[in-house]
Design a protein that fits this description.
- By secondary structure, the chain is an alpha/beta fold.
- The protein is built from 18 helices and eleven strands.
- It has a domain at 322-366.
- The chain has helices at 3-6, 10-27, 38-46, 49-52, 66-69, 72-82, 106-111, 122-131, 148-160, 175-184, 200-206, 212-216, 229-245, 264-273, 303-307, 322-326, 350-353, 358-366, and strands at 31-35, 57-61, 87-91, 115-118, 136-141, 166-170, 195-198, 222-224, 250-252, 274-281, 285-294.
- The chain is globular and about 65 Å long.
- The structure holds iron/sulfur cluster.
């Protein structure tokens, strides 16, 4: 049996579900776990796991969808950049329909004549810059620790090619400070989450150490998990076992991809180009040391400086509860717009726009 199919094996999943049910029964109290990764969100819904979880185990999605956590003031500045003359904004497709504070998106700007091109990687954007020497090519650098080294590599390539017309809007965010903010914040989710399913992709880069505070300071077990059904179930079993034993730790069940020390090489590339700074998160506000800005020696690639732009005031999409969804304070079905005026075909907020958003996953895989 090949390794990927073994993680879908119904007999293995059934056995893990039975073990999970036993663990919950032995623990003797309800548990809420949160995942902080859009891929986990989709995987849990698509595989049907959510509906199979034993009674007493509740699943919450946190701020793990990179497009969803992008602040509306950041989306606004992407649109303002696209509206400048002689500028081409290049972007991943899922950012195209995300609304800014006034409800407009890059797609609206495009319809009004702005030059926006969808690309599959930052290197495609570098190529566009090489082909359009008289234009400034801007890439909104959105994502977590997983994509930051890729953006850093694209800037290094642009510098090597002598391209001075390629730049980025640095909006990358760091996951561990957001988790700290969630647990430290008053009200919201602070007391609601018993344990965390940690993001496998981010952990490939970071390793386990940056998550240690979850167990050491907040007493929450946390397990790095893969994305197949058996991966997720194994991580949940370990998580509940740690709760039952009263010994919270940060552990890794995704050992075929994640090592304890992560990828020092990816972190080194990231550190060469970026420095840590404060960042605005949708739903969580300004979080200290949770974002990445360009280092002084890379400032010439900062699109905001080059185009004379700055983040403005934030707004609010009327009726949209994405902020509450991203804190795990509300499930999508409790949003009054869910499935009525807000659908994947006609999304109101980013959590319905992105394929990794909780609202989109809830809509697609639970039916309305
Ligand atoms: S259902 Fe739509 S309007 Fe409601 S929180 Fe989700 S994205 Fe926002």
């Amino acid at each position: 049996m090949d390794i990927s199919s073994s993680f879908h094996d119904p007999a293995l999943c059934r056995a893990l579900l039975d073990r999970l049910t036993l663990e919950i029964e032995e623990l003797g109290r309800p548990v809420r776990f949160m995942e902080v990764c859009g891929t986990h969100t989709v995987s849990i819904f698509r595989s049907g796991l959510r509906s199979l979880l034993p009674e007493g185990l509740e699943h919450l999605s946190g701020p793990g969808c990179p497009v969803c956590v992008t602040h509306d003031s950041e989306v606004d500045v992407f649109i303002r950049a696209a509206e400048k003359p002689d500028v081409i904004v290049t972007t991943f497709g899922d950012l195209l329909r995300v609304p800014g504070p006034d409800g407009r998106s890059l797609k609206h700007a495009m319809a009004e004549g702005a030059r926006v091109q969808v690309v599959y990687s930052p290197l495609d954007a570098v190529k566009i810059a090489a082909e359009h020497p008289n234009d400034t090519v801007v890439f909104p650098s959105v994502g977590f620790e997983t994509t930051a080294p890729v953006f850093a590599g694209a800037l290094m390539t642009a510098r090597k090619m002598g391209l001075s017309n390629f730049c980025i809007i640095p909006c990358n965010k760091l996951v561990p400070p957001a988790m700290r903010a969630l647990l430290s914040g008053e009200g919201g989710t602070a007391g609601k989450v018993d344990a965390f399913l940690l993001p496998g992709h981010v952990a490939v880069v970071l390793g386990l150490a940056p998550f240690a505070f979850l167990a050491e300071e907040f007493g929450r077990p946390a397990v790095v998990g893969g994305f197949e059904p058996a991966d997720i179930l194994s991580a949940l079993c370990l998580m509940i076992e740690m709760l039952r034993r009263g010994k919270p730790e940060v552990r890794n069940t995704y050992t075929r991809a994640v090592s304890r020390e992560g990828s020092p090489q990816a972190r080194r590339i990231m550190d060469m180009v970026f420095r840590v700074t404060d960042a605005r998160w949708r739903g969580l506000g300004n979080i200290p040391d949770s974002g990445l800005a360009l280092r002084e020696e890379w400032k010439q690639y900062d699109a905001l400086e080059r185009l004379g732009l700055a983040l403005g005031e934030s707004g609010h999409i009327p009726g949209c509860r994405c902020g509450d969804i991203l804190r795990g304070a509300l499930t999508p079905d409790k949003c009054p717009l869910f499935g009525r005026t807000c659908t994947p075909q006609n999304p109101t907020g980013p959590c319905m726009v992105s394929t990794e958003g909780s609202c989109a996953a809830w809509y697609r895989y639970r039916g309305v």
